[in-house]
Every structure is written in structure tokens, then in C-alpha cells.
Amino acid sequence: MESAIMDTGDCQPLYHAIRDYYEGMNMRIDQQIPMLLVERQALNEAIEGEKHGLHHMPETRGLCLSEEQTVTSILRRPRIERRGLVGLRTQPHKLTRKCEVTAILVLYGLPRLLTGAILAHELMHGWLRLNDYRNLKPEVEEGICQVLSHMWLESEVIIPGARNMPSSSTPSSSTNWSIGSTSMPSTSSSSSRTSTKKGGKSSVENKLGEFFMHQIAHDASPSYGGGYRSAMAAVNKYGLRRTLDHIRWTGTFPE
After folding, report:
1. C-alpha angle with apex 29: 26 to 30, nearest 5 degrees?
2. Pick from 142, 134, 63, 123: which is nearest to 96 by CA?
3. Quick one: CA dihedral 230, 234, 236, 241, positive or negative?
4. φ and ψ of 55, to 5 deg
5. Cβ of 101: how many Cβ atoms within 10 Å?
6. Radius of gyration of the chain from Cα atoms?
7. What percent of the chain is modeled with pLDDT above 90?
8. Hey, what long-range contacts does 243-248 have (CB within 8 A, 24 or more apart)?
9. Please, are residues 63 and 104 in contact by the beta-carbon 8 Å criterion?
10. Is 183 a residue whose pLDDT tops 80?
11. Mean per-residue pLDDT of the chain
12. 222 or 76: which carries more pLDDT confidence?
């Protein structure tokens, strides 16, 4: 409980620190996306309301809400015959607007580092949607979102004997976080450094962070775990920017 975040106001400094973290990697999120801490019931109701079919974990702890609507459009015009209109073909067509991200919801009462990891993941969903990454497979979208979650945790957790070194749970021995002309900040912003409410990072919280990183790296699910490992391997090899560019144009990770 020493670092549990219990309400929306309590979470705002952490949320803004993670937005700053994104900006530090040339991934500025211009839209002011509301962030709310909610109870599990509210989260479940929001999931039911989302119709875009994104994959969710068995226990969902965060959600990026968006506005979109699917309508039936005409794919091929009909022919006029004696019996009426024939040959009409339709297809579902998704209508969206540019600023489609409406809110980020996170389950309340979780430890600060877990709350932050969820926020980093959900903000990446928002960044992808606001930058026109469309119709990605679950393993691609969830995988790259988990990479950003792991990266943020790695910037927060002090691993004994490995300061400023990649986590041992990453697929390769060297991590290339460069995006554009700016590299990933090696430390978190000042607003997020004091992790407990009383200030200072405790050894318990540090171990929690290592555990959360281990959970991401060793997740058994195809979308979150398999997707993360494929995404991380691509980021390690090509860097984050080239990986994101490849996803934009192909919908897949570079080999």
C-alpha cells in the first residue's frame, strides 16, 4: 500500500510524467486525453461499450477509449432488372475522426509502478490511433504497447549492478531505444522520481518493478507476451522509429 494510487487526482502527476516521457522520445501526444482511475465495474462496462474489437487480457486493468462507428457502405452498385435491383454488394466501413481518443481508464488502488506501466501501455494505444496506425493485428498493437510499458518500467527501476544497462529480461544484450534524433531518457522526470507518497524509492517498490518487468517479458499469451517478444526483438535490432515506420506501412514487425 505504500505507493498505491487511490484516486484520479493522486494519479495526475504520474500521468503527466509519462506523457513527458513520451515527449522525450519525440512521441508527443498533442491531444489532452482525460485519464480516470475507476472501479472494476466501471472498467468492465467501458469494455462492453468498446466495439472496435481490440484484444483484452483476461483481467483488464486499463483501457484506451475511442470514438468510432461502423456503417454499411455500398461496395458494388446494383443492376436494374425486371425483378428489381440485383447484384448489390455491401461492406462494413469504419468511420472515425482524427481526434478519436476520448479517455484512458485505469483500475484504482494498484501500486504506482504498475499503474504507470498500465498508463504507458494505454498511452501507446492512444499514440497509435492519433497517428493513424489502423487495423493492426492484436499481437502487433499489444506487443508494441507492452514494449513502451517495459521501457518506462526500465527507466524507473534501479537494477543492482546494472544501472543504465538493459534489463536481463530483454531479448538481446544491447537495447536500441533511439527514435528520431532523440534517445530515450535514461532517468525519469523529476515529477515521477519520488515514487512513494512519502518520497524515495523503497527496496520493496524496486523489487515490484523488477517483477512487473519480468511479467511483461515472460507473459505466455500470444498477443501480449508473444507480441512483446517479437516487438522487442525488432526494436533491439532496428530501433523504435524504424520499427514503428515498418508497422505503419506493413502492419508487421521488421524481421
Report:
1. 115
2. 134
3. negative
4. -70, 135
5. 21
6. 20
7. 44
8. 243/144, 244/144, 244/179, 247/133, 247/136, 247/140, 247/144, 248/131, 248/132, 248/133
9. yes
10. no
11. 77
12. 222
CB 125 within 8 A of CB 64: yes
Residue type, 152: W
Residue 89: per-residue pLDDT: 58
Name the one residue in this structure whose C-alpha cell is 494505454. 122
Q: What is the three-state SS of the chain? A: CCCEECCHHHHHHHHHHHHHHHHHCCCCCCCCCCEEEECHHHHHHHHHHCCCCCCCCCCCCEEEEEEEEEEEEEEECCEEECCEEECCEEEEEEEEEEEEEEEEEEECCEEHHHHHHHHHHHHHHHHHHHCCCCCCCHHHHHHHHHHHHHHHHHHHCCCCCCCCCCCCCCCCCCCCCCECCECCCCCCCHHHHCCCCCCCCCHHHHHHHHHHHHHHHCCCCHHHHHHHHHHHHHHHHHCHHHHHHHHHHHCCCCC
What is the C-alpha to C-alpha distance for residues 166 and 213, in angstroms, rounded to an integer? 11
- Do residues 145 and 125 lie in contact, with contact meaning Cβ atoms separated by under 8 Å? yes
C-alpha cell of 94? Answer: 469504419
Question: Three cell numbers at 163?
Answer: 544501472
Whether the CB-CB separation of 208 and 196 falls below 8 Å is answered with no
**Whole-angstrom Cα distance, residue 66 to residue 97?**
10
- Phi, psi dihedral angles at 148 (to 5 degrees): -65, -35
Contact 189, 21 (CB under 8 A): yes
- Total-model pTM: 0.74
- pLDDT band at residue 253 under the 50/70/90 scheme: very high
pLDDT confidence of residue 134: 84
